[in-house]
Amino acid sequence: MADQIDGEGSRRRLGALGVHSLDHFSLTVPDLTQAADFYACFGLEVRPEGNEAGLYAFGSNHRWCLLKEGARKKFGHLTFGIYENDLQAFRDRLKRMNIPLVPAPAGHASNGIWFHDEEGNLIEVAAKAKSSPMEKSVFCEISVPAGVAGAPPRSRAPIVRPRRLSHMALYTADVHRKIKFYVDVLGLRLSDHVGEFAGFLHGPHGSEHHMFAMVKSGGPGFHHSSWDVGSINEIGLGAEQMVTKGYRKGWGLGRHVLGSNYFYYATDPWGSHAEYSADMDYIPADIDWEANDHPAEDTYTLWGTEPPPGFMTNHELT
Ligand SMILES: [Fe+2]
Question: 3-state DSSP call for residue 29?
Fold first, then answer.
């Protein structure tokens, strides 16, 4: 499949109508102050925005997540970025597929197209700059010459600050149905799946192996957000950073099979997770990735421990 360079310097897959980025998402949490502390400890910049809070990578004004306070933890909405000249084609596709549009929720700019997915999750597609990476992110294997100490003392351990949102994952009652919706409507492409248990989707215009993932549960819910860092060392430092601050629950260090990324998941106060991720596979716009159905043994890790009890509990159902 050939690709082309658009006016903004992004590669795009010719003839493909699909989202290019996961621009941001929103999450309702029962205690905004506690959530702000969790994500600040994780290494994100938390900016108060009225009664809400935005999550940013340090040094960037891209808001990846909007946190709101409510009775309980609940997934809010997902905004996908598209090229501006695809807006009408998306409107036409939604009309053709009889997917009703809904008004933007209160407090949100209404210049995007809002609708619900097959399970009732609120989705927006909006013209945005491409925030998914144009190429595989830099990954550092850090070493030092002989005669030099490689590790600093703990007191001088650097603070880990993720560079950007990598992806997010939702629970779903029906993985295949969800894959079909996100492929047919959003134009995402299947990277890999594990039977009816998990699915991983990438963007057609160049993205990591998954910008959006789903795992089987009794119904919808938010499983985790994942944040890109530049080395295995940063993942270890990040895990330590969270444990030191009292967020002791988590899973890792390990390496996933699907996406190949190294990971550590810190569990938030509400039983969902924030993942440090490094060196995920990248799928350029001009590569047709072979999507495979993997056996259950490939679900979690190439190496590392099994996830702890409760890691896959969908608290939005309880
Ligand atoms: Fe992940």
Answer: strand
How far is it, in rounded angstroms, from Cα 269 to Cα 73? 10
Q: Number of H helices and number of E strands within the chain? A: 4, 20
Report the alpha-carbon distance of residue 239 to residue 130 in Å, rounded.
29
Percent of the chain as helix, strand, coil, to the nearest 5: 15, 35, 50
Strand ranges of the sheet holding 45-49, from the earlier edge strand across to the other edge: 45-49, 52-56, 63-69, 21-29, 74-82, 122-127, 113-116
Each residue's pLDDT tens digit, 53-86? 999 999 999 999 999 999 999 999 999 999 999 9
Question: What is the distance in A from the centroid of ligand 1 to the CA of 221?
Answer: 15
User: Which residue do the tokens 């891209």 mark?
Assistant: 62
Give the number of C-alpha atoms closer than 13 A to the C-alpha of residue 302, restricted to the C-beta side. 9
Ligand 1 centroid–CA 209 distance in Å is 10
Q: How far is the CA of 125 from the centre of ligand 1 (A)?
A: 22
Q: For residue 261, which of 276, 279, 273 has the smallest C-alpha distance?
A: 279
Q: How far is the CA of 210 from the centre of ligand 1 (A)?
A: 8
167 CA to centre of ligand 1 in angstroms: 7
Record the pTM.
0.96
- Is the distance from CB of 2 to CB of 286 less than 8 angstroms? yes
Sheet with 292-293, strands from edge to edge, namely: 250-255, 262-267, 273-278, 221-228, 164-172, 212-216, 198-202, 189-194, 292-293
In angstroms, the first-to-last Cα distance of the chain is: 45
**CATH says 13-131+162-298 is which class?**
alpha beta
